[in-house]
Amino acid sequence: MCGFLGSDVPYNAFIALLPNVLKLDAADGASATWIESNFRFAARELAGGRAHSPAILAKLAELLFMEAVRRYFTSQPPLDSSLAAGMRDPIVGRALGLIHGQIARRWTTEDLAREIALSRSAFAERFTRVIGEPPMRYIVRQRLEQASAQLKESADSIARIAYDVGYKSEVAFNRAFRREYGVPPAAWRRGHAARQV
After folding, report:
1. Phi-psi map region of 49: left, alpha, beta (phi>0 left; psi -120 to 50 alpha)
2. Where is the HTH araC/xylS-type domain (predicted)?
């Protein structure tokens, strides 16, 4: 079965935080039976070619999507209070979506302000007030958090991870990582692996 779910809303901050591809195991979790029965129902409706099926299937797709999103967010670390506050603010929420959607882009405060259609100073002041830190500091912290997750979960090289999170040089990445975590990324990875044994 194949389909799509669209929206006329030009921007949704929570959807902007979703990965480009969201893959969940339908058999896993408390809603597994519900998901399976809904897919079976949808298949029967499609096979039967009933006239009312498109409207029913559209609502069913929305419910399944909402469940997938709910399961995705419950599998992630909880949103900290500043990020939750930022998501409620339409300006900052849009900026957060841009940042998280393109974490490796060489953002500047001016670039973000331009995308949001605010002056640099108005955007920087609002972002700092809502999130509790300036936009560029927030971006560095998010890049390093993503890098630390990749160091834990993958065998990718340090250079690959540095590039994936937006650093053009392994040296610059090592310096930023050491400043944030107190040790270089390779030592941090070894220490984390030793704690898991």
Report:
1. left
2. 93-191
Long-range contacts of 154-162 (CB under 8 A, 24+ apart): 158/185, 158/186, 161/185
* CATH architecture classification, 79-197: Orthogonal Bundle (1.10)
N-terminal to C-terminal alpha carbon distance within the chain: 42
Domain-by-domain residue ranges, the chain? 26-75, 79-197
In degrees to the nearest 10, what's the CA dihedral of 80, 82, 86, 92? -130
Report which DSSP code applies to 89.
Answer: S
User: What pTM was estimated for this model as a whole?
Assistant: 0.62
Q: By three-state DSSP, how is residue 4 classified?
A: coil
